[in-house]
């Protein structure tokens, strides 16, 4: 990973390496599968196109982006032109449904084994040439803030990422060369699309695949005539004149509408948005993602959710809002939903919180000072419920949120604080409540100015937790995803990072 990121290959998890692990990147693996048995059983897949005229089209466009459709198409044209200027390849846009290179803007799991993960992390991927139906197809994460000709540090330059991904689409793999456009990690904008030229390392690699375009000198910049009517690129969007969305909440300001563990990760819901934490309690992104775009099937106008939990019986995800609930399998809503919460035996008026307790495998619902205990296997409420006040001593009588976590403990949230109950215990662990914003959302404690400040960690640390500097915060906000088992918190962030690194390497070899 250090080699592919342009760092000295020391094998040490220093600050530069930890910062690299959070850098947005292409979601294709850096290393190919090398199993000898696989090579013996299968013929090598084609690594380049056997034809020279390739069609392309943008099949789906960004949903919420300042870049219009014509701008997106123009950027795709110029990103492909970077490669056709040097090689005998010719790219032409088509309007029909059939195209060699299909371009999509997608979110989350989009049925290709490379799911996106919200803002940051994996930003795009493309498929190598071959005889499979996805050959050349290129996908961009629609949860990214796509920009062009912009100095916005929070945006993702669409032209730069497209040039990289189209390199994959014509057969180039990742390379460790620091200046190469095919380095896996996002390096920021590469300049004006009308004037960009590939670094020498990339020119040599693509010439090895396809040869040199006639009249192009291997040592000179390409000088081919422009098409008669090249697409126009508008002036970059004036972000100062575009008012920011007022409904986007700050993660460090106050309580949350719902908190849930889903597939081993923590989700904090507030308004129309959510933040996501990996198994080792690291934020995927400081910026929230939109709920209805991640779980398609929830109403787009839904302003918030009341409670969310993952069923232990079948691992489906249940959302509550008012008197209705939805059931999702992964990111897709099941047929027949929404349905009334009376299916659970709950009265009208909605719920405040819901979670499944690992100790008895029962689901608990909370509303005001009442709670219900529900059996997922019999689909019935246990006798004697609702009951007054939760059974765990030391937690508030009314709750905002509750969830089970991968450490086996149950966590209860109210306002700006949370309480921890160890697995099987009926009393809050010593030292609680603690600050939700500080311990889960990488914020100062207390937040000095939630709406105007960055709210980064580092000002204070709870007893037994190391005080993080700003450079260490770069790791806490980790853009890479990992499904390795969560490391014990006492082992510290370096062990968690090592597990994530080992998993990433193993996954790349397996693919």
TrEMBL record:
UniProt KW Nucleotide-binding keyword: no
Q: Name the residues that bind Zn(2+) 2.
A: 26, 164, 168, 174, 182
Family the UniProt entry places it in: Belongs to the peptidase M10A family.
Name the residues that bind Zn(2+) 1: 110, 112, 125, 139
Task: Write out the residues that bind Ca(2+) 4.
Answer: 257, 306, 400
Single GO MF descriptor = metalloendopeptidase activity
- Kindly give the InterPro entries that the UniProt entry links to this protein: Hemopexin-like_dom, Hemopexin-like_dom_sf, Hemopexin-like_repeat, M10A_MMP, MetalloPept_cat_dom_sf, Pept_M10_metallopeptidase, Pept_M10A, Peptidase_Metallo
Kindly name one Pfam family recorded for this protein.
Answer: Peptidase_M10
The UniProt entry lists membrane topology as: Lipid-anchor; GPI-anchor
Coiled-coil regions listed: none
What cofactor is needed?
Zn(2+); Ca(2+)
Give the binding site residues for Ca(2+) 5.
Answer: 354
* PANTHER family to which the protein is assigned, alphabetical: MATRIX METALLOPROTEINASE, MATRIX METALLOPROTEINASE-17
Q: Which UniProt keywords apply?
A: Calcium, Cell membrane, Cleavage on pair of basic residues, Disulfide bond, Extracellular matrix, Glycoprotein, GPI-anchor, Hydrolase, Lipoprotein, Membrane, Metal-binding, Metalloprotease, Protease, Repeat, Secreted, Signal, Zinc, Zymogen
Q: Where is the composition biased (Basic residues)?
A: 37-49
Species this protein is from: Neophocaena asiaeorientalis asiaeorientalis (Yangtze finless porpoise)
* Subcellular localization: Cell membrane; Secreted, Extracellular space, Extracellular matrix
Could you tell me the Gene Ontology terms of the biological process aspect for this record?
collagen catabolic process; extracellular matrix organization; proteolysis
Q: Which residues bind Ca(2+) 3?
A: 117-118, 141, 144
Phosphotyrosine PTM sites in chain numbering = 337
Quote the record's binding site residues for Ca(2+) 2.
100, 137
Q: Which residues bind Ca(2+) 1?
A: 64, 142, 144
For this entry, the protein name equals: Matrix metalloproteinase-17
Q: Where is the active site?
A: 165
Q: Report domain Peptidase metallopeptidase positions.
A: 45-212
GO (cellular component) term, any one: extracellular space
Region named Disordered: 30-49, 216-250, 445-471
């Amino acid at each position: 990973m250090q080699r592919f990121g342009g760092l000295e290959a020391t094998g040490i998890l220093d600050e530069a390496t930890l910062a690299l692990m959070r850098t947005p990147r292409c979601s294709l693996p850096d290393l190919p599968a090398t199993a000898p048995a696989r090579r013996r059983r299968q013929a090598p897949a084609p690594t380049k196109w056997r034809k020279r005229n390739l069609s392309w089209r943008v099949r789906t466009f960004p949903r919420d982006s300042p870049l219009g459709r014509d701008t997106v198409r123009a950027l795709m044209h110029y990103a492909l032109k970077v490669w056709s200027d040097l090689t005998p390849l010719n790219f032409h846009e088509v309007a029909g449904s059939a195209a060699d290179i299909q371009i999509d803007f997608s979110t989350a799991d989009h049925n290709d084994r490379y799911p996106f993960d919200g803002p940051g992390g994996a930003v795009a991927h493309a498929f190598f040439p071959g005889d499979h139906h996805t050959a050349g197809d290129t996908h961009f994460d629609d949860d990214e803030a796509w920009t062009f000709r912009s100095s916005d540090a929070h945006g993702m330059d669409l032209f730069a990422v497209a040039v990289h991904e189209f390199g994959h689409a014509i057969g180039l793999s990742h390379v460790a060369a620091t200046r190469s456009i095919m380095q896996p990690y996002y390096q920021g904008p590469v300049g004006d699309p009308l004037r960009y030229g590939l670094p020498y390392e990339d020119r040599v690699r693509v010439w090895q695949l396809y040869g040199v375009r006639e009249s192009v000198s291997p040592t000179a910049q390409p000088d081919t005539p422009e098409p008669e009517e090249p697409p126009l690129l508008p002036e970059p969007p004036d972000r100062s004149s575009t008012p920011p969305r007022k409904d986007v909440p700050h993660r460090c300001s106050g309580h949350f509408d719902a908190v849930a563990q889903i597939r081993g990760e923590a989700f904090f819901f507030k308004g129309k948005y959510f933040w996501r934490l990996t198994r080792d309690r690291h934020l995927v992104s400081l910026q929230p993602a939109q709920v209805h775009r991640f779980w398609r099937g929830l109403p787009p106008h839904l302003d918030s959710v009341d409670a969310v939990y993952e069923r232990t019986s079948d691992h489906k995800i249940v959302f509550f809002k008012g008197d209705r609930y939805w059931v999702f399998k992964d990111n897709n809503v099941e047929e027949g939903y929404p349905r009334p919460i009376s299916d659970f035996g709950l009265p009208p008026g909605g719920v405040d919180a819901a979670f499944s307790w690992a100790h008895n495998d029962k689901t608990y619902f909370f509303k005001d000072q009442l709670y219900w205990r529900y059996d997922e296997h019999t689909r019935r409420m246990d006798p004697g419920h609702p009951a007054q006040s939760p059974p765990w001593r030391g937690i508030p009588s009314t709750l905002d949120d509750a969830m089970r976590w991968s450490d086996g403990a149950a966590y209860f949230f109210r306002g700006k604080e949370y309480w921890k109950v160890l697995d099987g215990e009926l009393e809050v662990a010593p030292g609680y409540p603690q600050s939700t914003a500080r311990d889960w959302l990488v914020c100062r404690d207390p937040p000095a100015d939630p709406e105007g400040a960055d709210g980064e960690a580092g000002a204070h640390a709870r007893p037994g937790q190391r005080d993080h500097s700003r450079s260490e915060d770069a790791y806490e906000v980790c853009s890479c995803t990992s499904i390795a088992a969560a490391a014990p918190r006492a082992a510290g962030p370096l062990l968690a990072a090592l597990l994530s690194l080992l998993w990433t390497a193993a996954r790349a070899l397996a693919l």
